[in-house]
Amino acid sequence: MNWLVSRKRLWSLGKFIGLSLLCCILVVSCNNPQSRTGSSTVNTTSAGNSARLVVGTTLRPRTLDPADNYELAGSNIMTSLSDRLYTYATGTGELEPQLATALPQVSADGLTYTIPVRQGVVFHDGTAFNAEAMAFSLNRFIQNGGKPASLLSDVVDSVQASGEYELTIRLKNAFAAFPSLLAFSGMCAVSPQAYEIGTGKFKPREFVGTGPYRLVQFTPNLIRMDVFDEYWGEKPANQGIDFQILSSSANLFNSFRTGQVDIAYQTFDPEQVQSLKQQAESQGWQALEEQSNVVTHLGLNAKQQPLDNPIVRQAIAAMIDRPLITKRVYQEQAEPLYSMIPNTFDSYQPVFQSSYGDGNVDQAKALLAQAGFTRENPLTLEIAYPAYSLTREQVASTLQEYGSQRLDGVVQIQTKAEEGATFFANIPKGIYQAVLLDWYPDFGDPDNYIHPFLSCTEGSATGCEQGASQSQGLFYYSDRMNQLIEQQRQEQNPQTRQQLFVQIQELIAQDVPAIPLVQNKDYAFGQQTVQGLQVDPILKLPLWDIEKGASS
């Protein structure tokens, strides 16, 4: 995204007149909330001097169109501007109605969802909300062909209003996690008067929804939202939000320390997090640390030799030392992860801990010997990662060093940094042996950590040819895994479904298509004047619950 940066010029119109003009320019600039005086300067906002919240971040939204946004930066903004049919009770993974008035009625075959929707709701432009408007919003999400469109188009057959305040959705195949999918930020209601249905018809710099805030300004450095006076639900605890977008983590760090932002959230370097935590008590800051639902895996290409041998993949799993990685790379700002499903879900089973442990050198050597690898015939493994990710670079380097020092030359790890676009374009082509993958889930259900990695629509014993597993560079194919994934997607009984996830995790530990490494922690920092600050694994920052008091 490009924008113009204004530059001051000094005209030689005489010493006195020139100085006067310069002073005038400075006065106007200091009172203009949109003035830009360099990437390291925070725009004039309401930090510390009003009941508006100033949130500092380095995440710059590409678009606020819910049918095209598929990045965390946009989702953080849209969560405050919008309502979905369903959301989550803050601090829990419990689904609750939002624009719906109840959980769906599901047909016996699991294909038809009937959802009652709320009355008395209006959009930010005054248009009345009803089932037709909700159907318009979901159909637009599917038909406009934006980045996240496949989330719905892959599973939904039709969406229609079956009454003024009743919505009926027909699925192509049964999908038990569908209500959770409807809580995804992009599935929000948008005004039919403000948007169009049609391929590529997006409005990246606008937002007209039904949420507790309405968008009033969207510039590259500042996004402002005011409280929506006609909001149907409980009004926010503050008078509005200014998202101040900083150019770097260093600028975010300094802006918080000097009180120019009320809340600092995403993203800091580990050293900056550590510094803010250490100074929190003496400075009176709030430092929040919570479990995140973001995970990192080492994906293994099961189609490439010698990783087509599951014994080799098991040996790599045995050599991984997660506590070493979390200490050296993350400075304890992440925790070891022993399943592809994070421990924020009840279905989490630490199967890699029980099967392989951490840094199990003896087991790794024995498995490698079984596969024919010794010091004289070492296993060579190349690990690729996107060059922009310093964290993944350090993970790869740690694994390389560990393999060299602890495994007596039986494993020789090489690292490969690739430009981001090239890295992601090459993954589904099967170019890489192993890849470091960060995963930001689309919705709060264990399925979203399994299906996008391990399902395969077309494959054989030689690997996956088409499907999610191929697109993630794993090329893993298993009839049994495909069966288990489909069973859990169709199963409506929560207890039975949870048992299916146990079986899935056990099969992952046996076949090792990927190796879970770490589960991130999430950090937010608030000034003394901020009350009600909390970090949620799914909702991230519930800003509507935050109140801002006077400076002490």
From TrEMBL:
GO CC, any one term: periplasmic space
GO biological process, one term: peptide transport
The keyword Transport belongs to this UniProt entry's keyword annotation: yes
Gene3D superfamilies for this protein: Dipeptide-binding Protein, Domain 1, Dipeptide-binding Protein, Domain 3, Periplasmic binding protein-like II
Pfam families according to UniProt: SBP_bac_5
UniProt GO MF annotations: peptide transmembrane transporter activity
Residue stretches making up the Solute-binding protein family domain: 94-459
Keywords: Signal, Transport
Compartments, as annotated in UniProt: Cell envelope
Main localization of the protein described in the UniProt heading: other
PANTHER family associated with the record: PERIPLASMIC BINDING COMPONENT OF ABC TRANSPORTER, PERIPLASMIC OLIGOPEPTIDE-BINDING PROTEIN-RELATED
Family: Belongs to the bacterial solute-binding protein 5 family.
Protein name: Peptide ABC transporter substrate-binding protein
Native source organism of the sequence: Gloeocapsopsis dulcis AAB1 = 1H9
